[in-house]
Structure formats: C-alpha cells, structure tokens
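Async update (no meeting this week)

Hi team, since we skipped the sync, here's where things stand on the single-chain job. The sequence we agreed to prioritize is pasted below, unchanged from the tracker. I ran it this morning and attached the output directly underneath so nobody has to dig for it. Comments welcome in thread, and please keep replies under the output.
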Amino acid sequence: MLKRALMTRVADLTQRFGDEKQRAGALTIGGMAALAAGLKGPGLAMFARGARELEARWRADHGFTGGLAERWERAVAFYDAQHRDPTNRALHMIGIPMIVGGAVGLVASPRFTPPWAASVALFGAGWALNILGHARYEKNDPAFLDDPLSFIAGPVWDVKNLVSGRRPATGAA
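Output:
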C-alpha cells in the first residue's frame, strides 16, 4: 500500500515538470533515491522508466537511427568529452566503483540490515564524489542527464582507462 502511494505521488510530481528531459531525469534520480530508501521494486521501476525516457529523448534530439555499435561509440565519445578534468576523473575512478558496489548491495541485501546500510553509504558517497567532480572541477552536469548510456559507459570507460593506464585528457593540445 505504501509503495503504491509513493509511486502515485512520484508520478504526480514528475508530471509537473514541463520538459520531458527534466521529468525523465527526475524519474531516474528518484528511482536511485527510492532504491537507497529500501524500495527496491519501485526504485528499479522508476529508474528504468527514467532511463528509457532519457534514451528516447536522446535518440529524438540527435535524429539517431543507427545500431547498437554506433550508439555505443557515441556514448563513449560523449562520456570522454564530459570528463576532461583530471581531478574529476580521479574522483570518478573512486566514486563509480562505490556507486556500482553500493547499487549491487542495495539490490542484493535485505532492507535495514548492516550490509544494506553499508551499501547505502557506499552508494551515497560515490555519488557525492561524482557530483563534487562535476560541480567544482568539470563545471558541467553528470553525463547521464544528457546521455543515459553513461550509466554503463562510465564504469566501462573507467575500467578500460585503469587497465590501459591512460590518463584523462586535459583539453590541452
């Protein structure tokens, strides 16, 4: 009953956003918050709906009709362009594994147990590091608000750079 009431309230609130992209972003962020609050099903459903709407908006805005390989290339190139500052990259190299580990723990752990609490802390701290990196050093929004594949491209890009030893570009020629 509480979950249904929460989902109805969230749906009402998201309809107040006039812009589709803002609404989709709010659903995605709200889904992550619901997951962190212990509402696994509703949280994952909201996140999936928001990410799906962000992807549809991205495809419409870019007139994209290509296949998965081309879409992936564009997502990685965009992610790279949004993460040029070395301090931001360092914060992401720490924060993204925390987010991924925390998210796995939130889904896998029973609510309100010590493993769940540790997962909430990891998830929140990872996001705090990423937001700090964008707000203070990169001076742009997190990439997922413009390209939802960044949720996947970010961790993959970080692992690739860690394994290859590649340092982030600084924008200097």
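Quick observations from my side:
The CA atoms of residues 102 and 118 lie 8 Å apart.
The chain has two domains: 1-65, 68-173.
Reply here if anything looks off.
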